[in-house]
Amino acid sequence: MRKLLPALLLLLVAAVAAAQKVSYSLRFGVSQHDFADTVQVAYDHHRIVVPVSVGGKQLHFLLDTGASQTTIFGDAPIEGTESLGFIASHDAVGRSSDVPVVRMPPMTIGRTTFTGMQAIVQQRTVRRSDIDGIVGFDLVCKGLHLKIDARRGLLILSDRPDSFDDRDAVRLKYRMNYHVPYIDIEPFGGYRERVLFDTGSPLLYAMNRQSFDRCEAATRGACLTMVEGRSMGRHAIGYGGTEQRGETLFLALERLCLGSFALTDVHALTTQGGSHVGGALLDYGTVAFLPQKRRIVFTPYDGAQQATVANRQTDKVVVSEGGRPVVGLVWERSEHYRAGLREGDIITGVDGRQIATMAEYRLYGPKAGQQHTIVVSNAQGERRELKMKW
Q1: Which residues make beta-bridge pairs with 250?
Q2: Whole-number CA gyration radius for the chain
Q3: Non-local CB neighbours of 367 within 8 Å, separated by 6+ positions
Q4: CA 348 vs CA 233, 325, 337, 341, 378: distances in Å
Q5: Are 74 and 132 in contact (CB under 8 A)?
């Protein structure tokens, strides 16, 4: 036994070294100085997809201001990365974990090359062939000004201090938390909340349930007028999995105010994760980040200070559970509920095609607004065939 102790200690030391914790770092190089670089991007389902070149390969990265760092995926490794250790990471539903961090090989966006950039390595339950990684808010934290014009499909990067400071725009001061930007908004008259500005989320707005409870207390219940329904379930998804089951509120906001700009007739959900404004805001104007002034500059496309959203309420959500597509949430006042869809149903077939995995559901699943025959089974194994418009 005594002879084994030194060997065990050596293994322990090696394990500790392998699990070395590293800190968030902006020590990466930028190839240009005093520049403005315009990049053609895609705006797809309220998400900005940026062309990125790494090692001569053309890749597609999601632009996610809710991510503190560049991210790559464990199921699609990039050649030339160097392992650095582990770093603490916080996902969209509030879970914390230690994740691997690597040093990226030179990465080029437009005409600008970034060298020595850190990236975290995340796992994902379903691989999307159109997304190879994530461009995070570290570009802005580095001091680069960034402007997104979704209507024209443009991303502009610049290091010039006077970039994008439009005098007629709405200016929103942002504060940093976990190296990502938070702004103050007003979802209900007399109640302000701090939310993450998260272009990685396709939603326009999601409200943390505890924030709603604080709003109810602050307004003495007046905000209950914006609740149009309640259901048990789960819908928010982070890298660590889906949020815990709980009561979800379906909200109908008369006005959602961002500074002097107002969005009217907004439908949204509560979430157990943090409140956030997402990529759908890009439907209504350009967004620029000015790091020196800690400002977000929002310029409405038509110059108006108000826009009507009138979006359809999210009345059902399918999540991944054990790799299978499972109904995580269904509103009890929806057509889907009346057709027989229930929370916890496992989707096993669509229009005669068997569905065994979430990946198959993404490929062959039902399309919004179209009529389908959907086969589901519940936790007891009971099989049902449902006909509905999805």
Answers
A1: 229, 269
A2: 23
A3: 390
A4: 20, 8, 18, 13, 10
A5: no
Could you give the maximum distance between any two Cα atoms of the chain, in Å?
Answer: 78
Hey, CA dihedral for 210, 92, 253, 297, is it positive or negative? positive
Does the pTM surpass 0.70? The reply is: yes
CB 112 within 8 A of CB 32: yes
- Of 262, 261, 386, the closest CA to residue 327 belongs to 386
SS3 10: helix
CA atoms within 13 A on the CB side of 324: 16
Q: What's the per-residue H, E or C state across 323-382?
A: CEEEEEEECCCCHHHHCCCCCCCEEEEECCEECCCHHHHHHHCCCCCCEEEEEEECCCCC
Q: Using CA atoms, how far apart are residues 274 and 270, in angstroms rounded to an integer?
A: 9
> What's the CA gap between 228 and 13, in Å, rounded?
57
Interval 49-90: pLDDT, tens: 999 999 999 999 999 999 999 999 988 889 999 999 998 776
Distances (CA, A) of 126 to 72, 278, 284, 350, 377: 14, 21, 30, 19, 21
**Strand (E) or helix (H) holding 278:** strand 276-278
Q: What is the DSSP letter of 33?
A: S
Residues paired with 258 in a beta bridge: 261
How deeply is 338 buried, as exposed, middle or buried, from its count of CB atoms within 10 A (0-12, 13-18, 19+)?
Answer: exposed
Q: What share of the chain is helix, strand, coil (3-state, %, to 5)?
A: 15, 50, 40
**Contact criterion met (CB below 8 Å) for 163 and 108:** no
Q: pLDDT band at residue 7, thresholds of 50, 70 and 90?
A: very low
pLDDT in tens, 215-245: 999 999 999 999 999 999 888 766 556 778 8
